[in-house]
Amino acid sequence: MPLMLVLNHLHFKLFFTMRLLLSNLAFVLLLNLTCSPTYAQNFMSNPTGRNTTSLNGTWKVIIDWYNRGNQLKIYQDRKASKPTEFVEYSFKQPMQVPGDWNAQDPHLFMWEGTVWYKKEFTATPKTGKRTFIYFGAANYFTEVYLNGKKLGSHEGGFTPFQFEVTDALQDGTNKLVVSVNSQRKEESIPAMNYDWWNYGGITRDVSLIETPANFIEDYFIQLKKGSQNEVEAWVKVNGMNKSKKVNLSIPAVGINKVLETDTSGYARITFKADLKLWTPEVPKQYDITLATDEESVKEKIGFRSIEVKGLDILLNGKSVFLRGVNFHEEIAKEMRRATSDADARSILQSAKDLGCNFIRTAHYPQSENLVKMAEEMGLMIWEEIPLWQGIQFGNPIILAKAEFMLREMIRRDKNRASIIMWSISNETTPAADRDRVLTNMAATCRSLDPTRLVTSAFNHVKTDGNKTILEDTLSNVLDVVGINRYMGWYKAWPDKPGTMVFESKFTKPVIISEFGGEAKFGNHGTADSAGLWNEEYQEQLYKDNIAMFKNVSFLRGITPWVLYDFRSPTRMNAANQDGWNRKGLLSDKGEKKKAWYVLKAYYDSIK
Ligand code: GCU
């Protein structure tokens, strides 16, 4: 973790005060200045729209059982130079990248520690070109070396990071060595005790990206907040010569605009355009090109407006009900992280088959290819950073880490029409520290992206007889309030489901961001409380919750927990769970449980 995060409490107080004083950008600069210069750089947006060489495939690994790798300098990948010399490590075992190590080696099924990866690749550095190594994600703490030299580190398992290697790249064979540590820590995000499998490793694509000397590092092209025909765009050029003419074109609607970046490489523009708006039913995207005299970057982008008006969520000015579902980034039947386009398509198609127009990619930013595919397939997204339950909000380090992850999430996905809301946390306990940190996060969200909604999922709600009262004051800083409410599972019905009422202290749209119960596929029996774990019980639970929802006047969406059964080390009921959270509507093999049909019928009825 960057040097600054080991700053002592006093330094951090000073730091925090300066944070409030300085603008977000200055804050990041300050972080970068005080962080060890080797912390991962701001990554470029849209890596796949650039001159990219994949480094995916078979890498070689060393399992560092006792974390001795640094001491042994494994990053040097030394070989004995003479018979009398010995080196006590060598890269031999193959490991697929992207992919978690847990699913690839039975010895690593539960491994939470360090694994060293090595990949050799050939390269020919070109004059006037720059080269970057880009990681889609690696869980959790990663250190990267090229040809024995440290490039830097990154913390967080679900967001991209990159390093410039223009100077470190050799003509010919290059040796990339990466150590990944997946140990859970009190001060990490998520922290110690989360309800999903801690898949470790380089879990997303790795690529070499070649750019010109001055390149378009980042850009934002979306409809202005509240508008359906005014596009707001900015570009950021990185390089010695930051003052550039950048041509933005949307050929399909005859748009050709020139942005002239200033000496900081920045330019902004607003213009009118007659665009067909993106909707789940018609997920229209436009081919966009950004070109300078040195390069052109292409991307498909959809345009839609998303707002809140009173209790309504307006998509393109019309009130919408979010028919959603939660899922983890996992291919359950193979007990592994989802990594490929095919994986993403299979999960998203299951959501579509259920009648969804909305998904909650719980509880962390899932892969960029999944988010892009959701835009193509017409699914709106609630995207979240893993501030999940037991976070040490009183720990001075947490705000900066959480902000970093939030910035990375927004940086990666800000051009996605599919993403309609950013979630800053899940099920955190109301407290002054929590409120301070999350209030800051909400402000950061809006300063980075004024076009989307800010939300969070709460589970601290009050019950008074058959009344559920939403009163978590953090709702004041949100646009949409998410409520996790497990009626009929963690919470018994105080009365007939149809008689339950909800009361909210806030005039805001509410989403029931989690509800549901466990059933092992194939377990059959009664639907009453004696039938826990069987499909009939879960089926009835869905019917009851849907009956309850009909009374909630400010309800504007639901995302049941959960699409598929998923792996969780915290689920230890041997007969029914055995390491699985069984709240899926689909079993780990994709079999439809009875509750699946209840929700499908409900979604078809409200379409
Ligand atoms: C929580 C939590 C989920 C968890 C679920 C459950 O509300 O947000 O991550 O898996 O409940 O208990 O099944």
Protein architecture, described:
The chain is α/β, with parallel strands linked by helices. The chain is built from nine helices and 36 strands. The strands form nine sheets. Strands 21-34-33-31-28-27-26-25-22 form a nine-stranded parallel β-sheet. Strands 3-2-4-9-6-7 form a six-stranded antiparallel β-sheet, with no helix packed on it. A four-stranded antiparallel β-sheet has the order 1-10-5-8, with no helix packed on it. Helix 4 crosses helix 5, helix 6 runs parallel beside helix 7 and helix 8 packs parallel to helix 9. The chain starts with 8 loop residues before the first helix and ends with a helix. The N terminus is likely disordered.
Sum up the structure in keywords:
607 residues; globular; binds alpha-D-glucopyranuronic acid; alpha/beta
Give the strand order of the largest sheet, numbering strands 1, 2, ... along the chain.
21-34-33-31-28-27-26-25-22
Distance separating the two termini: 47 Å
Number of strands: 36
Give average pLDDT, whole number. 93
User: Strand fraction band?
Assistant: 25-35%
Contiguous uncertain segments of 5+ residues? 1-9
Q: Which hetero ligands occur in this complex?
A: alpha-D-glucopyranuronic acid
Radius of gyration from CA coordinates: 25 Å
Give the biggest beta sheet. Answer: 9 strands, parallel
Shape: globular
Helix content: 10-25%
Number of helices: 9
Quaternary state of the chains: single chain
Computed structural class: alpha/beta
Short description:
By secondary structure, the chain is of the alpha/beta class. Helix 4 (341-353) packs across helix 5 (368-377), helix 6 runs parallel beside helix 7 (432-448) and helix 8 packs parallel to helix 9 (594-606).
